[in-house]
Write a structure and sequence with these properties.
This protein is of the alpha/beta class. Helix content is 40%, strand content 18%. The structure holds adenosine-5'-triphosphate (ATP) and magnesium ion (MG).
């Protein structure tokens, strides 16, 4: 009966967009926690093509970011990775990500998972109202950022607390550049991939 109920209500699909340069345990804990809290069937990680907010910064090749995301999520049967933003090319806009995932999953309910910092940026987006029609938004706590409801449309955004991990990709890159360890901040396979591909060596 439980799986019949799951089928009849449609799949609940979490969407975790990010640069993932590199993916770290903060991303994974947020996805895992939201999947449990919202009874999601799957969380799909979507590495950005070129993130429009970061176009003036150096971002690692999409293929490296994609492979690190695959390595980090491979063991979890609930996690998957999508190439849609990478293969679309050009700057990534969340509205395109959600539209493409909607086309691939016409019957699924979409839940877009985002950290407090990224959620605050939504307000600066051109027409955030349209986004809230495309998915339910879930804002998660992140150390160093305040999670506040600035008056989102009713019922469109849930703010939730996840175990605090003060990890950022920026810090991981800086640590590698300085020769400091990133063991236990990112999955072991990602540490080895970064070292094999000599990513982040020059800061
Ligand atoms: P960078 O420092 O390069 O910006 P990042 O650590 O912020 O990297 P992103 O790929 O930019 O990682 O983030 C993808 C998503 O994950 C965003 O919604 C972001 O808010 C969220 N996120 C990142 N780190 C954490 C964390 N430690 N706890 C909760 N959410 C996080
Ligand atoms: Mg970020």
């Amino acid at each position: 009966p439980a799986d019949r109920a799951a089928r009849s209500r449609g799949r609940r699909l979490g969407v975790m967009g990010g640069t993932f340069d590199p993916i770290h345990h903060g991303h994974l804990v947020a996805a895992s926690e939201v999947a449990n809290m919202f009874d999601l069937d799957e969380v799909v990680f979507v590495p950005t093509g070129r993130p429009w907010q970061k176009s003036d910064q150096l971002v690692s090749p999409a293929e490296d970011r994609y492979l690190m995301t695959v390595i980090a999520t491979a063991e979890n049967p609930q996690f998957s990775v999508s190439r849609i933003d990478i293969d679309r090319g050009g700057p990534t806009y969340t509205t395109d990500t959600l539209a493409d995932l909607r086309a691939e999953n016409p019957d699924a309910e979409l839940f877009f998972i985002t950290g407090a910092d990224a959620l605050n940026q939504i307000l600066s987006w051109r027409r955030p109202g349209d986004l809230f029609d495309q998915a339910h938004f879930i804002g998660v706590t992140r150390p160093g950022h305040t999670l506040t409801d600035p008056g989102f449309p009713a019922g469109s955004v849930s703010l939730v607390e996840v175990p605090a991990l003060a990890i950022s990709s920026t810090d991981c890159r800086a640590r590698v550049a300085k020769g400091q360890p990133i063991w236990y901040l990112v999955p072991d396979g990602v540490v080895r991939y970064i070292s094999k591909r000599r990513l982040y060596r020059d800061g």
